[in-house]
Here is the input.
Amino acid sequence: MRPGSWIDLALCIAVLPALLVIFPIEEWAGWNAVYVLVCTAWSYLNYFLHRRVSALLLLSPRRKLLPLFFALVFISGVVTFLIGIYEPGIPREVLEKAPRLDPHQQALWILYIVTTFCGVAIGVLDTRNRQLESFKRDTQAADTVRGEVDLRGSEAVGGEEVTVKAGYQTVHIPLSDIQYAESRGNYVCIHRDHGEDIVTQMTMKAFTELLPEGKFLRVHRSFLIPAWRIESRSALAVRLVGVGRDIPVGRAHKENLK
Here is the structure.
């Protein structure tokens, strides 16, 4: 079970029942057992409502959803107020001892405040924890991919480089750093693992002639890929390790993948 689930379980079987014991539940149950059950059920429902919904609304990057969070808190407060209006048949001598609120109203509002606060707080902490775990998994996966790409590139081309002109600068690009090259008319855009993409003024044919034979494959009129990066292929596209998109395969270049 996740930590958040353990917290939910502890609150449901220990914290909320302990709060209920503070109040004279046995006496109230004698006056109106159904009302006590309704208050108890609403306390649990209110907790999970804020735990599962309000916390997500509060953490949402879409600021337009923030008013919904306050609306949900307000609506749950209105429901609590309406439940508290009902007279559960408490004896008059008990009501006369109550300073401001009737005993059942005091208990109901205390439970409402506790369950709302705990629901939102625990929901926020659990969501943040899951986001952190997801980030760690993504980072580990990215590190694994980078390690695999570096190993494949090192085995295929070692430390070889290709030199191109980018504007008025001469740029030396390690072959192992090239994700793929994309033709843009009389220009070639070289997508890399590290650093910005490099755009050089030359045709794809001229760029291909600068590369070691057999290490790069022309799979489309507009795309050139490193052979060692191929992860999977189909009749229409190629998936490359460490590249966040599929590269299309042209009909005239299918033979290059065999």
Q: What stands out?
A: The first helix runs from residue 3 to 22. The radius of gyration is 32 Å. The domain at 161-257 is CATH 2.40.50.1020 (OB fold (Dihydrolipoamide Acetyltransferase, E2P)).
